[in-house]
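Box 3.1 A note on notation
Throughout this textbook, protein chains are presented in two layers. The first layer is the amino acid sequence; the second is a token string describing backbone geometry. Keep the layers aligned when reading.
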Amino acid sequence: MRRFLPTALLLAACGAGLRDGYFVKDGVRYKVATLDAAVWQRVNFSDNDLAWVRKDTAQVLAMNCTCKDTGDPSLEVLTNHLLMGFTDKWLKDRATKQVDGRDAMVSRYDAKLDGVEVELEVAVLKKDDCVFDLSYISPKGHFDDGEADFDKLLGSFSAGTSGMANR
């Protein structure tokens, strides 16, 4: 568990912020529930729009939107792209859920990240020519500690495009 925190913090880099409770980027805006600031610290991770680290066990919640040159890959292909960098991946569960009125593929894995055992859950959906992904990564044995917060983000997710950034 302690080895996971330095790895997560090394990923930190400059990123965009929130505006009036919405993340806004390139004509896309989306909103998710607010997380408890006493538990989750908002951080900037490279290649993610929004990210948080759990203060006590170094779990990571992250989300991103890509709207350029996405083509039309399947949700399974998009999920596999999210798993790049993980080794010894073992799919534990996969389901299709409705998120913001669209089908989302939600997959749970055991894996390793830089040799450290982790549990992760990823959700991928396509909407308005964009791909949205939400990820939850936890040190092995601590997944249940943050699962409800991942579910909260996923259940509250709403997105819009086409000039909504100015509303």
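The CA atoms of residues 113 and 160 lie 33 Å apart. Helices lie at 4-10, 75-82, 143-156.
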